Amino acid sequence: MRVWRVGDIEYTETKQFAVYREGKLSFKELVKNALSKNTQQKMVEGVQPFPLNKAIDFKNQYLAGFQAEKRDIEYQAIRSEVESELKDYSEKLLRETASGYTTLTGVRSSVAINNQKNNYLLLPVWLVTYRSRDSKKVYYYAMNGQTGKVSGVLPVSKKKLGFTSLSIFTITAILLMIVGYLI
């Protein structure tokens, strides 16, 4: 787009181009939750990614002392969601290769998904549920068992937070007064 002015008149020149992009993309390790009753989906997704290159074959001993839930969503139930996500991401990646244009308008797009391989994994996610004594509110917390990445909202005691904040403010104010007096 080019804009110029002659006297009181402003001219704008725009050009339209047919931009064609083609590519072959490979996606690996797209992880989806296969539990329908997990109401805290965003929290569980928040502890991703998992280093899947370190995955090992499953053995029952790994679950000794722990509770695990069996998947209740089969791949066919989420296939359209997975394919839609892959198509959207593919279009985004191809669109990013078309630089130098002010605006890109997608007229047509065709994405074919080939050689799909699906595996079920049991990933180490620890879920903690905590009910506050004061408010009786339920807090959920998740942790990635491989990386330690955490997600969730922890309960905060307003009394302790207020006391700590007031203490820090008081100590800082006293120190500033002492430093101000000495200078």
Class by SSE composition: alpha+beta
- How many DSSP helices? 3
Write down the Rg: 27 Å
Secondary-structure element string: EEHHEEEH
pLDDT below 50 for ≥5 consecutive residues: which ranges? Answer: none
Whole-number total of structural domains:
3
- Morphology call: flat
Q: Residue-averaged pLDDT, rounded? A: 87
Strand content: 5-15%
> How far from one another are the termini?
60 Å
Helix percentage:
25-40%
- Count all strands and give the number: 5
Strand order of the largest sheet: 3-4-5
The description of the largest β-sheet is: 3 strands, antiparallel
Give a verbal description of the structure:
The chain is of the alpha+beta class. The protein has 3 domains: 1-30 and 72-119, no CATH class; 37-71 and 122-152, no CATH class; 158-183. Helices cover 28% and strands 15% of the residues. It contains 3 helices and 5 strands, in the order E-E-H-H-E-E-E-H. The chain is flat, with a radius of gyration of 27 Å. The protein starts with a strand and ends with a helix. The relative contact order is 0.14. The mean pLDDT is 87. Keywords: Membrane, Transmembrane, Transmembrane helix. The chain crosses the membrane at residues 161-182.
Tell me briefly what this model is.
The chain crosses the membrane at residues 161-182. Keywords: Membrane, Transmembrane, Transmembrane helix. The protein has 183 residues and is α+β, with helices and mostly antiparallel strands.
